[in-house]
Amino acid sequence: MGILEVKDVNKRFGGLQALGDVNLSVKENTCHAIIGPNGAGKSTLLNCLVGKLIPDTGSVLFDGNSVLGRTPFEICQMGISRVFQTPEIFGDLSVMENMMIPLFAKRDGAFRLHAIESVASEAELRTDAERMLEEVNMLDKANMHSAAMSRGDKRRLEMAMCLVQNPRLLLLDEPTAGMARADTNNTIDLLKEIKEKRDITIAIIEHDMHVVFSLADRITVLAQGTPLVEDSPENIKGHPKVKEAYLGEAA
Amino acid sequence: MFGLEKKDARLLLLVAVLVAFAPFLLNPFPEGSAMAQFNAGYPDLMQRFVIFGIFAIGFNILFGLTGYLSFGHAAFLGVGSYAAVWMFKLLSMNVLPAIILAVAMSGLFALLIGYISLRRSGIYFSILTLAFAQMMFALAYSVLTPITGGETGLQLALDDPRILGTSQTAGGNIPVPGLFGLEMRDSAELVLGSWVFTFNVGYYFAAIVMLVSFYLSIRIFRSPFGMMLRAIKSNQQRLNYTGLNPKPYTLAAFVISGMYAGLAGALMASMDPLAGAERMFWTASGEVVLMTILGGVGTLIGPVLGAGAIKYMENIISKINSDILHGWFAFLPDGLEDFVVAIIYPFIGKGWHLTLGLIFMGVVIFLPGGLVEGGQRIAALFGRKKASDDDSGKSAKTEPAE
Question: How far apart, in whole angstroms, are the C-alpha atoms of residue A59 and residue A54?
Answer without folding.
Answer: 10
